[in-house]
Design brief:
The protein has 17 helices and 38 strands. It is of the alpha+beta class. The protein is globular, with a radius of gyration of 44 Å. Its EC number is 2.3.2.27.
Length: 790
């Protein structure tokens, strides 16, 4: 071990010394207990039951109490306690429901003394009386507590808590006849051992099971309890009504709690799961541990202070099969690593800032904030006591208020109230929400809604082809000068390739019907349709063709030029079916032969096949649909939603999620959606926008959110006869034994939809009540109440 500090404590005639040390166990430990003189510790678990000696440098195994070839379940221990008066006496709580006592003074190997098998389920806790030698108390999962006299063969008293299982029992250190018991239903009961018929007092200590309790060794009335609600509470039992005087919030369920000797306000806790550390708390400063022990690698199952008058040594056992002795000087002090400054924004934009008072006093040039600077004392201390106390730091809290007339969050409320999330088409919802954002002067949000409509709405149908089309108006169309063969592949034929042999020239044989369309006789506007033997991907090169050989030229009137047309799919109809290998025009062959880029021995001409043949105008159009699929935009929308959420505008993120629905739901993981929904619903409820919150929950695309309306709604029903609340499920009232769901009109039991008056509790079949109230306003049951159907 690296921590080698050594402490010696004088306790009367004896002295305790040692250091932080540990030893490996044979199996995980469930509980530990130390003897009165602090020289030995017993470790018990399902597969271990041993006694170790506490020497100055190490643990030394003294005795193994699991004897025999096949140990019985009596050795499987859930709890163990060493008697604080009789050093040779131990008691264990077995997982099979047995309470076993062990006498270490026996000469035989088997030290088992007595066996009590009165409990029907696992015994969770055993406790010796602090002064009475022969009195032993047990608490079991069966809900009973039993008091044993070790001089007898059976229990002398049985205490029934009329509740669920008992998790802990503890005798009072100062009151001879009193013990406390904690239960899984959250209650704590105080009993007098002389009155086993009824508890002295009972109170609800935690919202959930209470796993442990411990009486203060010095103060007679203080009882500490720990539960699954992650809280440690200290109760004052001396008052007429039990009073909670301190509360410590931990980070996990509290499994054990032990008061620290000689320190009135200190107690140690360990967790039942998740957290492996041991914490020592000063209950006057409940927000940060006083000290922390971080040695264990698994859940700590048992803690005990080595001596009842020594605050410097703590023993612990764990599921990691180790036994530790912790020295307090080696503990980690979380306060030394705590940040003394704090910053927080309020709901309406107010800013609170806490800082070390010495920093503020040293800043002579500090000027007050013009919007308002209110300073509150954060901590105040009396005269410091340097004995194991926190670092004494006083802080000041400054609050900077926003202008109350600015209404900076009005946009949130108005947006939530005016947004439409369902009931119309997707395009209409986007347009409406964009208009709302624009009116609230949020142009970016408005533009986002508009873009969503454009990207995900159904595209408009293409217009029908016009009979008279002038290509001189198509200057904005991207006619293709250079065209990749790979890009043309899908639209040009089954194999998507143009075949050409060596010594062959390429020639387009295009036949157009004269007079079918009008093309401007301007060489600058005409695209180049033929090329030399250049790169393969350059399909249209620099050779110019005579327009008279390809197109019929006519003049357009001014009115035709002014009219705008939509480019049809096929602007020119083929005059006849193109043959497989038609001959090219002679002048084109001559031009080709004269071209310096073509070798002279080229004798053959290769033309496009019928499938590969195409007109100039068909190439001038895109070879794919101009409308991208909606799925193309999903990654962009996902990033946009993340951007809004990171900026704090979860309202926009959730609204888009609901409006888009299945279009975007699968693109975002469920945990992220749930986080956004919960944040937005929390904001809506803070602003008391209950209807909007309910609508968001109802329209949620996340299953974890949709079920909120079902789990948080409770309907209380009164009996129509005795007017008392119905406690049992069904039709029969458990008080008057009458059927509560009888129709006041037909006097039959309503087994379907039931409607009732909230004023007199009478009702019946929906159709019967509607028909009755059409002709009469009085209750059909004859009670005289004026019922109203709304």
């Amino acid at each position: 071990m690296e921590k080698m500090s050594r402490v010696t404590t004088a306790l009367g005639s004896s002295a305790i010394s040692g250091r932080t040390m540990f030893c490996h166990l044979d199996a995980p430990a469930n509980a530990i207990s130390v003897c009165r003189d602090a020289t030995q510790v017993v470790v018990a678990g399902r597969n271990i039951f041993k006694i170790y000696g506490l020497e100055e440098e190490q643990f030394v195994e003294k005795l193994n109490l699991r004897v025999g070839r096949k140990p019985s379940l009596n050795f499987s221990c859930a709890d163990v306690m060493w008697h604080q008066v009789e050093d040779s006496l131990l008691a264990t709580a077995a997982t099979n429901g047995a309470v076993v006592t062990w006498n270490l003074g026996k000469p035989s190997r088997n030290k088992q003394d007595q066996l009590f098998t009165e409990h029907k389920r696992t015994v969770n806790k055993v406790c010796f009386h602090p002064t009475e030698v022969y009195m032993l108390l047990s608490g079991s999962q069966d809900g009973f507590m039993k008091c044993f006299d070790l001089r007898k063969k059976e229990s002398v008293s049985t205490f029934s808590g009329q509740s669920e299982s008992v998790r802990d029992v503890q005798f009072s250190m100062k009151d001879y006849f009193t013990f406390a018991a904690s239960f899984e239903n959250g209650n704590v009961q105080l009993w007098d051992i002389r009155r086993p018929d009824r508890f002295e007092r009972m109170f609800t200590a935690h919202t959930g099971p209470v796993f442990c309790c411990d009486w203060h060794p010095d103060d007679r009335g203080w009882l500490a309890t720990g539960g699954r609600d992650k809280m440690v509470k200290v109760w004052d039992m001396t008052t007429n009504r039990v009073k909670e005087i301190y509360c410590v919030q931990t980070i996990a369920s509290v499994a054990r709690v032990k008061w620290r000797p000689e320190r009135k306000f200190h107690l140690a806790t360990c967790s039942m799961m998740v957290d492996h550390n041991i914490y020592v708390w000063d209950i006057r400063r409940p927000f940060i541990p006083f000290a922390t022990f971080e040695e264990h690698k698994d859940v700590t199952t048992g803690i005990v202070w080595r001596h009842q008058h020594d605050p410097h040594f703590l023993l612990s056992g764990s599921k990691d099969s180790t036994l530790y002795q912790h020295m307090f000087e080696d503990a980690t002090r979380p306060v030394d690593m705590a940040n003394p400054e704090g910053l927080c924004f309020g709901l309406m934009g107010d800013l609170a800032f806490a800082v070390n008072d010495s920093l503020i006093s040293s800043d002579a040039n500090r000027k007050p904030y013009p919007g308002g600077d209110r300073r509150y004392p954060f901590f105040s201390f009396k005269r410091p006591n340097l004995t194991e106390q926190f670092a004494h730091v006083s802080s000041a809290l400054s609050v900077f208020e926003t202008d109350l007339d600015s209404h900076r969050m009005d946009w949130f409320v108005k947006t939530a109230q005016l947004y439409l999330l369902s009931g119309k088409s997707f395009a209409e919802l986007c347009d409406h929400n964009a208009k709302v954002a624009q009116e609230l002067k949020r142009p970016q949000v408005s533009t986002t809604w508009t873009m969503l409509r454009i990207m995900f709405s159904d595209p408009a149908n293409l217009a029908a082809p016009a009979p008279n089309l002038n290509l001189s108006k198509l200057g904005s169309l991207p006619l293709m000068n250079s065209f990749s063969m790979k890009e043309m592949g899908p639209g040009m034929g089954t194999d998507g390739r143009l075949e050409r042999s060596k010594g062959e020239s390429r020639q387009d044989n295009i036949h157009l019907e004269p007079g079918n369309s009008h093309i401007s006789n301007n060489n600058e506007e005409n695209e180049e349709t033929e090329g030399s033997d250049g790169p393969v991907e350059n399909m249209f090169a620099d050779v110019e063709l005579d327009d008279d050989d390809l197109y019929s030229m006519e003049q357009d009137n001014q009115a035709a030029e002014e009219q705008e047309y939509t480019l049809p799919q096929e602007a020119f109809q083929l005059r006849h079916e193109i043959m497989d290998n038609p001959s090219a025009p002679e002048h084109l062959q001559q031009d080709k032969a004269d071209s310096p880029h073509v070798s002279g021995n080229e004798a053959e001409v290769t033309c496009l096949t019928p499938i590969e043949s195409f007109s100039l105008i068909s190439i001038s159009q895109p070879l794919f649909s101009p409308h991208l699929p909606a799925s193309f935009f999903c990654p962009i929308v996902r990033e946009m939603l993340s951007y809004y959420a990171e900026q704090g505008d979860v309202q926009m993120a959730v609204s888009v999620l609901i409006v888009m629905g299945e279009r975007i739901r699968k693109e975002i993981d469920d945990l992220t959606q749930e986080h956004w929904y919960m944040s937005y619903i929390d904001l809506l409820q803070r602003f008391e926008l209950w209807n909007v919150s309910n609508e968001v929950i109802k329209l949620s695309t996340c299953n974890a959110i949709t079920c909120l309306n079902q789990t948080s709604t409770t309907l209380h029903i009164n009996c129509s006869n005795c007017k008392r609340p119905m406690s049992n499920k069904g039709w029969i009232c458990d008080r008057c034994r009458q059927c509560a769901s009888v129709c006041a009109v037909c006097h039959h039991v309503v087994k379907g939809l039931f409607v009732w008056c909230q004023g007199c509790s009478h009702g019946g079949h929906l159709e019967h009540i509607m028909n009755w109230l059409k002709s009469s306003t009085h209750c059909p049951a004859g009670c005289g109440h004026l019922c109203e159907y709304t």
